[in-house]
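S2.1 Query sequence (3'(2'),5'-bisphosphate nucleotidase)
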Amino acid sequence: MLAISKLRSIAIKAVQQACIACVEIQSHLVNEETINKKDKSPVTVGDYTVQALVIESLLSSTQALGESEYSIVAEEDADTLAEQPDVQNKVLEYFNRYNASKPIDASRLSELLDKGKIKNPTTKRWWTLDPIDGTLGFLRRDQYAVALALMEDNKPILGILGCPSLPIASNTPNDKGCILIAQKGAGSFIRHIERDDEQPIHVSTQSDSSQAIFTESYVSRGFGHELNSKISKNLGVTRDPLRIDSQCKYAMVARGDSDIYLRLTELAYKECIWDHAAGHIIVEEAGGQVFDFQGKPLDYSVGRKLDNNIGIVCSNSNLYPALKESIKKSIDFKPHHYTFTLIFE
Ligand SMILES: Nc1ncnc2c1ncn2[C@@H]1O[C@H](COP(=O)(O)O)[C@@H](O)[C@H]1OP(=O)(O)O
Ligand SMILES: [Mg+2]
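Output structure tokens follow.
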């Protein structure tokens, strides 16, 4: 089996190339009109192009080193694309512009995309990919991420988050575009999209909950914001939450710009694995905690969704015990975890 350090370089290269493509697709396809008309086609072009580019890059790089193919669990598949010939042509155009090897046709494009369609991986190591996480942020020209993780025995061992619109540091707001990288047991790092040097990152050491900075989705879904406000009130938090799209929230916690990220929006919603695997290991390797609302580890062994988990609780280590207590005060879990009640009084 290939050394993890080799796969780390392969994965960074794939995400870096994808981020460059995203920036160009966004600048050509997203204008005031598409934002106002809520035209999602630029997102569609971006999602498919990036999924195909990353899969092709991973396959060709690992094959060149004599490694057999790993399973890939990715968000998109080719079915709907084939029904939209205009979008498919644009995707092919962008793919062939960014992919270094010989041009591909529509049938190879479908084949590449559909490698991500599987329900259950069949290899010990497997990839999970969200080509554009935070599509609403992508359209708003706000935050979004290319999220790639390598799993081994159903746990993340590598996480790469490409964040094309996120400043490399909070004190340089105009220097945008960074990649966060974590390898199991080797820590978390940040690098600029256009540079090779990496710096280690760590979660904050904040232990005073009154000063804690929460982060949550920009988009309000279900009871998510209301619940977070209840939990933060119980903790004594005084500062307003940061609202950011995509796994950039994990990035903010991992590098200490935020202390806590909570995500629970509706009882029936199950989180997708590609929305968490990369951010999860990046926060853990930066010294933070990632569990669900019942304190259970995230279980990536049951298919494309986190069916055994309820929401996401992500925090620096100092605040985690108090956060757990505050969650207990805000949610009453019923026996056997089949139902739970939110206590909003
Ligand atoms: N009700 C929901 N609760 C939590 N996440 C959701 C919900 N509906 C969609 N999502 C997912 O949230 C992610 C964006 O999250 P964020 O708010 O953090 O930017 C997307 O992957 C989106 O999935 P999808 O891609 O299927 O729309
Ligand atoms: Mg997503």
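The chain has two domains: 4-200, 209-342. The pocket of magnesium ion (ligand 2) is lined by residues 130, 133, 275 (CB under 6 Å).
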